[in-house]
Write a structure and sequence with these properties.
Elements lengths: L1 E12 L2 E12 L3 E5 L6 H9 L6 E6 L2 E2 L5 H6 L2 E4 L11 H7 L4 H5 L1 H11 L1 H5 L10 H13 L5 E5 L7 H16 L3 E5 L3 H7 L2 E6 L2 E7 H4 L3 H7 L3
Parallel strand pairs: 3-8, 3-9, 6-7, 7-8
Antiparallel strand pairs: 1-2, 1-4, 4-5, 9-10
Helix pairs in contact: 3-7
Length: about 240
């Protein structure tokens, strides 16, 4: 069952077309990965789904509801939450204060204490760091805090933009294990990621975005066997 569906989606920056005739389905309960080179349109795609960027044409439906006319805050309220590239934490605030800011929708505010306990259960290190300023955390810890803040909004669809960017190999592996655990608990994941191998290994399905076009799609393990993908992104 499709949770999120994009059909004939076209997005422009002025006269420059960034996304062309995009058709992507994100199945409910699955982990879907979008991979591609820099400037392929991956972040533009997430920002369009979030409502930060307006599409020129095409449709986006979420839970069978057409959402093109909804502003970003309303999309969060219906369950679409994005973890942006670069984390964008409030550095002078504590970990817990950053997390609590994620619970700003009416539904999430009512359940803030319960959701905070859930985040600390999933991301145990954050509980130890809860009174520290965000700018005192390592890069990996800041990324975990950003993910935790997103979970506080009670997403049905959690979108992550390059969560492994700038992190060491061991931290990257821990990050992906955390993302998988969140998915196993029932949250649908849409992951944009530069680490093609890791991303497709854990994905139920994947899409390859090149110059604004979807050029390949399929099961994650199947895409890893594709000769073009191996040459272009894995150096094989």
């Amino acid at each position: 069952m499709s949770l999120l569906k994009m059909q004939e989606l076209n997005v422009y920056y002025g006269d420059l077309q960034a996304l062309s005739d995009i058709h992507i389905d994100v199945e409910k309960g699955e982990l879907t990965t979008i991979v591609g080179a820099n400037a392929a349109g991956k972040s533009t795609l997430l920002n369009t789904i979030s409502g930060v960027i307006e599409q020129r044409s095409g449709t986006i439906t979420f839970n069978s509801q057409n959402i093109e006319s909804l502003p970003p805050h309303r999309r969060v309220e219906i369950g679409i939450v994005q973890i942006p590239e670069g984390r964008l934490l409030f550095p002078w605030m504590t970990v817990e204060e950053n997390l609590e800011l994620g619970a700003y929708t009416p539904k999430a505010r009512k359940l803030k204490k319960k959701n905070l306990e859930r985040v600390y259960a999933i991301l145990t290190l954050l509980k130890e760091r809860r009174k520290q300023r965000a700018d005192s955390l390592s890069g990996g810890e800041q990324q975990m805090c950003a993910i935790g803040r997103g979970l506080m909004a009670m997403p049905e669809l959690l979108m992550l933009d390059e969560p492994s960017l700038g992190l060491g190999p061991i931290i990257v592996q821990e990050m992906f294990e955390t993302i998988q655990n969140i998915n196993r608990e029932g949250t649908t994941i849409l992951l944009v990621e530069q680490n093609v191998q890791f991303a497709l290994e854990m994905a139920h399905q994947g899409f390859v975005l090149e110059n604004g076009y979807v050029t390949l799609k399929g099961k994650g393990y199947e895409l890893l066997q594709n000769e073009h993908l191996k040459k272009a992104y894995l150096g094989i």
